[in-house]
Design goal:
Layout (H helix, E strand, L loop, with lengths): L23 H13 L4 H14 L5 H9 L2
Length: 70
């Protein structure tokens, strides 16, 4: 039986992110982009809070650490 992906709702706060089904690979790619481009702590914190509000299994610490080591 195929596993269903959880659909995340689009937020007014982040209209640039079209969230259908976000996979682990999407989170990794976003963290790498934040790292490569030196995203501010405020931006990383806002996006992290949004993802955590949409997915109770989202690991904040792991995502933030990934945005700082590239």
């Amino acid at each position: 039986m195929a596993r269903r992906r959880k659909r995340l709702r689009l937020s007014r706060k982040f209209p640039f992110i079209s969230l259908g089904a976000v996979t682990k690979q999407d989170f990794v790619a976003l963290a790498n982009a934040f790292c490569r481009h030196g995203a501010s702590d405020a931006l990383v914190n806002d996006v992290t809070n949004y993802f955590a509000s949409q997915n109770p299994r989202f690991d904040r610490g792991r995502f933030v650490a990934a945005t700082r080591k590239c």
